[in-house]
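User: Transposase, Sphingobium lignivorans:
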Amino acid sequence: MTIPGIGPITASAIAAAVPDVSMFRSGRQFAAWLGLTPRPHSSGGKKRLGGISKQGDGYLRRLLVVGATAVMRMVRKDASRHPWAAQLLERKQVKIATVAFANKTARVAWAVMARGQTYQPVSA
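Assistant: Predicted structure for Transposase:
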């Protein structure tokens, strides 16, 4: 619950849905399991990434996106709290940036669970 965008409901849902975090090798694999990674449409060495794959647990994905939406609303008011998200909002549309933040949140959640530590925000 110390991760921005994850409250008690999301934390308990992740704890209930993920029995063993060691079944994922990385945070990217965990985010892909949730369906939060872009679907590739690549050929000939040219990378083309589409929308999210939407595979996996829709309830967890929805909770993470709703939490990321709440964080993005605060970022739009005060950009100094999450500079990465503020820079992303300058380049991308709000909904795309929100899903990207949800992806990042899922990766951070995996790292916290895999290491058995609490979230420590990086100071700017």
